[in-house]
Amino acid sequence: MEGSGKDIQITYNESLQPLADLLGSTKRPGDHYSAGAFETPMPALAVEGVGAVSFPVPPAQARALIAAAAERAPYGRGDRTLVDENVRKVWQVVPGKLSLRGKGWERSQPALVAKVAADLGCDSAKVSAEFYKLLIYDEGGFFAAHRDTEKSPGMFGTLVVTLPSAHEGGDLIIRHAGRETIVSLRNDDPGEIRYAAFYADCEHEVQPVTRGHRVCLVYNLVHTALPRSPVPPDHRPAVEVAAKILNAWAGGDDEPHKLVYLLEHHYTQAALSFAALKGGDAARARVLKEAAARSGCALHIGIVHIEESGWAEYTGNGDDNSSRRHYWDDDAEGGEDDGGTAEEFEVGEVCGGSYFIDQWHDADDQPVIFGRIALDDAEVLPVGALDAEKPDEEHFSEATGNEGASFERTYLRAALVLWPLARFDEVCASAGLDATIARLGQLIAEATAPGEAADATARKAARKHVHRFATFIPGEWPGYEDHGARLDALLGHLARFGDVALIGSLLPPVLARHYAAGRNPALLAISPVLGPVGSGAFFDTLFAAAAPAHPGGCLDLWRALAASALSDRRTELETLLETLIAAVPRTRKPAEPRARQGWARAVITEDDREESDDDSTPTPEKEPLSPEILAGFLAAVSGTLGDAACIRFVDDLESNPEAFAPETLLLPCLECLAKDGPVPLEAVARLWEQCAAFYLRRSATSPPEPADWAQNVAIPGSEKNPFLRELEAFARDAHARARRFPLATALRSVLHQAIDRAGLDMTHVTERKGRPYTLVCTKTRATYERTLRRYRADLVDLRRLLALPMAQIPKATPTVNRLREALAQA
Q: 172, 203, 214, 545: which has the highest count of C-beta atoms within 10 A?
């Protein structure tokens, strides 16, 4: 994107200006507004507290209407409803306080609505007018520039009917696509009304009434069925010229991937579709749809998002009454707001932005999940379409600290988007992973669809197309996202395609970083495609990469493979087991604070501190290994490969008691094995012995109660800092339990940090009396108390070990005796 200063940062496609000129000259089936006089019997209008209204409305009766039934009309700003006579000064009478009848009036309304619909380029049979409210502008009444919101389903515009009432001023100004129209609605003829209708996205305002009263009925124009584009005049010559231009563009090597033609009207993102296009937009869409079909191009509609930010410049032109520019809506339930642009600031330099298209519909008006497709250079038509456009949202921030004033602005525009079908793959791939995987699935579905033998050549070409497109799928996926749904979709597509080479090229680099146990069912589905040997090689690579972080998922996947795809392939299962034996013990859990491990009080050194801050610590396991999964895996290994293979795995677990803790994993696993059924005794006995040895090393005797209050620590920096030296001496003092340190805030903070870093069994509380405050340090038995609690928990686990069937094996008798001795000493 190019440009600088106040200009929007996009570049237009000047080489295709002939296409833009052609579309710009396409005859419109209607316009953005309709206005005029309409002869009709007057309605039988009666208002609560006033009675029947006369025509022309006498000034005294207009004042009576205001006094008896009217209230100040609010406007919507964002999600707030406001009454501000600096923005809108008009009286309203809501439908519940009036009645509107009359046979002649009711007969004439369809004709008026049909005329308005025709002028706006709509199918009159599908347009109705819903009465909204009665408005009374007295002298000085006005409404600032604003756009209407679509207040009910199907609403697309507003109809204003001015009843006969003598007044001056109050002209309606309608602006759209660079055009400004002033409509006078003055009328005192009792035989006709004056009307104006316009699309809801047109900016409009009511100028002040200078004399008398402007009395009008306001209606919402609503599509009673899905809106359809009006039938245009004969556009065949335009279609032929457009098709020639698109053919030449699609065949060029240096042309942009797509064309983005911005539409005139504004459309809400939720309601955007080809069917909802208005006026000239509908005519241009029809021309491009036929031309695209003739030139091998795809046509879609979407919303262009242009989000920019940068530096603002202070102009000093603001004041209390004119410091912000807004769009206001005359609906009390909400409206549009341009974000409150302060006039004392203006856009300086654009420093960054985001440019993309989303909310896609194809030419058949079906939603398409392309996601966000980038808006690139030289893709936008017509030239200069956004140069004079106001942002849909604009926010300024005043300077703070060293930062200058800044701004953020957003443009939202509906656009027709074309690209050659030959570049369709590139466009899909540019939209991101979701669109790329969806496109791969579409191509695979086409390549694997049932067909006759005569289609062999086409099927071969379709499979080659799949392989070509697969090169767009990256091996590196963002690490901060959850890719579960994407991986499931990709695995499903590849299983359907059944190509071993494609599976081997696409999946390993992604699964190495984003594997999770939840992917196991989808992985099992591709195993039949790979075959036994291919499965062995594929899952061997996966286990080596994923088992340290996902031991539970990998062990469960091995068990599932042994029960299904590799049930009769001992060689492959043994190879996978050896990979797990090498990978699973590398699993780590987050380290405990160094000074709080074990019974002994640690000696903290500077080297220790640097080591504890090392970022190379292995990533904590993401999916903890559960006792149930481990028990199921051991049973599967014993049942498939025999007890010796199971023992090899069990022996390696002993090297990592932190990740494979006996108290939380191994002992509960033994209880699962005892409950679920017999397993060959040698492996189970080995695991039982490991658990027993662990507990005996840790809790064969009760922890000795400290004989004094000494804590033998070395506090870094004590050789240079006398206060740290005094703290260290206090910690080592066998008899002193408390020490007071009268220190300033900064020095108290130094002692706080030293106590926490050294892991001292010591509280530190600031006594806020006198000056300086005093840090009161008091020694505790925290380490001993933690160790004692753990010892008591270990005694419970010793009893659990003795209760297991493994304790009845004669070979276990010496260990059983030691366990009983430990319990007796307790």
A: 214
